[in-house]
Amino acid sequence: MPDIDIVQVKTPSELTEFINLPWKLYRNHPNWVPPLKKYVRKLLDTKTHPFWQFSDQLLLLARRGRETVGRIAGIIDRNYNQYHKTGMGVWGFFECIDDREVAQALFSRVEDWVCGQGMTFLRGPLNPSTNYEIGMLVEGFDRAPTFMMPYNPPYYLDLVESAGFRKEKDLLSFLVDRSWEPPEWMEALGRRLREQGSVTVRSGDVNKLEAEIALMKKIYDESWSKNWGFVPMTEGEVAELAADLVKIVDPDFAVFIFYKNKPAGVGLAVPDLNPLLKRLNGKIGLMGPIKWLLYRKEVRGLRGLLFGVKEEYRQLGLPFIALTHAMQIARTSDRYDYLELGWNLEDNEAINRLEQEGGARPHKRYRIYRKSFADRW
Question: Is 295 helix (H, G, I), strand (E, B) or coil?
């Protein structure tokens, strides 16, 4: 068997090879949803994407003879390390054949690179940070992912763990469908808060888009500032994300919660475009608009992209006010059959317990791995 060569991506053709590899690996995985190649290319572009203004990148391909058999990205996020006063290296964008030797060669090169820059541990998968797509699927392989959630074959767990990585944190998602009815205690709580006039909920205003985005970021940053893995997005990152999402977002599902007229919480759910992305198979092309017209009715769900409640308001039951608001709108529109809530941190017991008590059911589990360089020597 030919030796494994690890090649750094330097040319446009090698970048194309890096982007295209999943189409080879997932051809027998019907639940995989192809990303738009144009989006992946933009996200990896160190000259134009704002994430790389403060981050370093190493893209690697694994080859055995003439065959490409794996890929990985090494990342150093200086904003995260400064925010948390730590030395984190990141691996992400990992794809590989079912071969421990290939995976070990890829991880080893990333470890060498980040360790050489003074990092003390390696975490992943982050693609490229917690503000984007993260985690490795460990439960729920029988169901397709929702928009901007990862999917991978079950054997990836063995590849990662055999390379010395151990679980650091699990992320959970929950599902609510059209049959959902809020329990009596939730309805009673909502009625009491509304009758008191202390809590108000409103949807986003497309005529004040810039101000709405700024308010959403402010509430979310304050809500998540003490959570594991959090790092604030820069203004450039927010603008980049907003430019992508504004094309698809339904303002009815951008929810702002106020307590005594003060911003207390925020939530954003976006249409689950994955059924359409599966049809597009990585490219919009000339047929893209036609496919949208033909298949847009297949988009029947929502993905809860973000949610946060400021710490001082977390005992008021505000998550359920927002959930009830969103599900009432979903039923009225008749466009959506389900809402995925997540990801949630596994140890955020309060929100996980409350969502399940409110009728949401467990849907998928994802894992973040960590390896200390103290274990390497």
Answer: helix
Q: Distance of alpha carbon 257 from its chain centroid, rounded?
A: 23
pLDDT for 310-369, tens place per residue? Answer: 988 887 777 777 777 777 777 777 788 999 998 999 998 888 887 887 788 999 999 999
The label of the residue with tokens 């991978």 reads 152
Q: Where do the domains of the chain lie, and which CATH numbers do they carry?
A: 4-170+369-375 (3.40.630.30), 175-368 (3.40.630.30)
β-strands 133-134, 126-127: how paired? Answer: antiparallel
Question: What tokens does 341 get?
Answer: 């809530």
- Chain centroid to CA 78: how far? 20
Distance of CA 85 to the CA centre of its chain: 24
Residue that has been written with the tokens 């999943």 in this structure: 22
- Please report where in the chains the tokens 């309060």 appear, as a residue: 350
Angle at 158 between CA 152 and CA 29, to 5 degrees: 25
pLDDT score at 376: 53
- Among residues 62, 55, 48, 136, the alpha carbon closest in space to that of 90 is found at 55
